[in-house]
Every structure is written in structure tokens, then in C-alpha cells.
């Protein structure tokens, strides 16, 4: 949703729903953990009022533990935290589950996959950043593919293996081949003249790769 037109947020949500999106991904940035600010609780609340789709709230925060309950109340269904600020994230996972949400774990490009692997099956979603987080429209980092492969090898079948950053026509098939099954697409979808057509194109590239 970071790539949405915030003057027409509900319109963009309706377009994504019509295209076939299954989850909406919301990037929360605090200006400390990442060098940018995005949006906070009021926007999550507004998105929640506008859709029944699950909301994957990606907490790019220095102290995510302070905000778990607030974002859950705002409407988050999935709360994803970074391994870089939670070297043992299981305490946060427990808190997220107590709040009635689904825990996710995220790692940035420089973080070794070994930091993530011990906790892959302690949560329901593992997100590999394929760009340095903070800004949209960056180029896909191909080194993320090996991280995804290694996560896929140890993950239970029901784990969502997500990838975020630079996902588009030239990269989505490679990410699928590596083992990703959830794809965060921002500028590759929103802002296109025909969002539904673009969504179907990206989906077909995944299907072709998996055939």
C-alpha cells in the first residue's frame, strides 16, 4: 500500500480487490530503523474500514514491542517484525498470538539467513527483503534468492514465504522458483493503467514457473 495514491486510498483498495489480491501489505516506518517515515495507526484503521482482506502490517520499527497491541487494535491480521531488532523473536511471536494476530519474521538484505533459520517454523510468515527497506521502486537484489531457497528447504509446507522489494515482471518468476509463495508488489501494480491486467500478468508468470 506504500505505492497507493493516498488521496484515493479506497479506490486503490477496490482496484486491488477486483484484481484478485489476497492480502494487503502495509509498511510502517519510524525514521529510525529505516531512514524514512511512512504512515501509522490512523491509516491502518482507514484501510481496515475499507476492506475485509487480511492486513499484513510490516513493522519497520526500532521497538516493535511497544506498538503490537496498537496496530492489532487498528486492524492488523499479521504483524511482522524484524530479526535485526529482535535477535530471538519468539517472545514477540507469543505476544502477537496472544493479541489474536499472526506473527511474521522479516530480514534485511545484509542479514545472514542463518539469523532467521532457527525461527522459521516458530511463525507463520517469513519475509525476505529483496531491497534495502525504506523506499519503494528499488532494484531487486538477486542475492535474496539464495536466502529464499534456504528458508524454503527448512520451512513447513504451511509457512508463507514472502518476498518484498523490486518484485515485477522481470523478477517474480525467479522468486517463485526459489520458493516464495507470497509476493509484495507495490509500484509493479499500483500506478499502472490497468491494475487488474497487470495483476493477471504477474500471476501468470508465477503459474508458468510452477508448471
Structural class of the helix and strand makeup?
A: alpha/beta
Instruction: Note the overall shape.
Output: globular
End-to-end C-alpha gap? 30 Å
Total helix count? Answer: 7
Number of domains: 1
The CATH level-2 architecture is identified as Alpha-Beta Barrel
Beta-strand portion reads 15-25%
What is the element string, with H for helices and E for strands? HEHEHEHEEHEHEH
Q: If you compute it from the alpha carbons, what radius of gyration comes out, rounded to the nearest whole angstrom?
A: 16 Å
The CATH superfamily is Aldolase class I
Give the tally of β-strands.
7
Proportion of residues in helical segments: 25-40%
Oligomeric grouping of the chains = single chain
| The CATH class | Alpha Beta
Main attributes of the structure:
7 strands; 211 residues; alpha/beta; 7 helices; TIM Barrel
Please summarize what this structure is:
This protein has helices at residues 9-19, 41-50, 68-74, 90-98, 144-154, 172-178, 195-210, and strands spanning 24-29, 55-60, 78-82, 102-107, 125-129, 160-164, 182-184.
Structure description:
It is a single chain. With 211 residues, the protein is an alpha/beta fold. It has one domain: Aldolase class I (TIM Barrel, Alpha-Beta Barrel). The chain has 7 helices and 7 strands, in the order αβαβαβαββαβαβα. The chain has a 7-stranded parallel beta sheet. Helix 6 (172-178) runs parallel beside helix 7 (195-210). It is globular and about 45 Å long. The chain starts with 8 loop residues before the first helix and ends with a helix. The model has no long low-confidence stretch (mean pLDDT 93).
Amino acid at each position: 500500500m506504500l505505492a497507493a495514491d493516498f488521496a484515493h486510498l479506497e479506490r486503490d483498495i477496490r482496484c486491488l480487490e477486483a484484481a484478485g489480491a489476497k492480502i494487503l501489505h502495509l509498511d510502517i516506518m519510524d525514521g529510525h530503523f529505516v531512514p524514512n517515515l511512512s504512515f501509522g495507526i490512523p491509516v491502518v484503521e482507514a484501510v481496515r474500514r475499507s476492506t475485509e482482506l487480511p492486513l499484513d502490517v510490516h513493522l519497520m520499527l526500532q521497538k516493535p514491542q511497544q506498538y503490537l497491541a496498537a496496530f492489532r487494535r487498528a486492524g492488523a491480521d499479521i504483524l511482522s517484525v524484524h530479526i535485526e531488532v529482535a535477535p530471538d523473536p519468539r517472545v514477540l511471536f507469543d505476544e502477537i498470538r496472544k493479541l489474536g494476530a499472526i506473527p511474521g519474521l522479516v530480514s534485511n538484505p545484509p542479514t545472514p539467513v542463518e539469523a532467521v533459520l532457527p525461527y522459521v517454523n516458530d511463525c507463520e510468515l517469513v519475509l525476505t527483503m529483496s531491497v534495502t527497506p525504506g523506499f519503494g521502486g528499488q532494484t531487486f537484489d538477486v542475492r535474496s534468492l539464495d536466502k529464499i531457497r534456504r528458508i524454503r528447504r527448512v520451512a513447513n509446507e504451511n509457512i508463507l514465504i514472502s518476498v518484498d522489494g523490486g518484485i515485477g515482471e522481470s523478477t517474480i518468476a525467479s522468486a517463485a522458483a526459489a520458493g516464495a509463495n507470497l509476493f509484495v508488489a507495490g509500484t509493479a501494480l499500483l500506478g499502472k493503467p490497468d491494475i487488474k491486467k497487470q495483476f493477471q500478468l504477474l500471476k501468470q508468470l508465477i503459474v508458468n514457473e510452477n508448471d
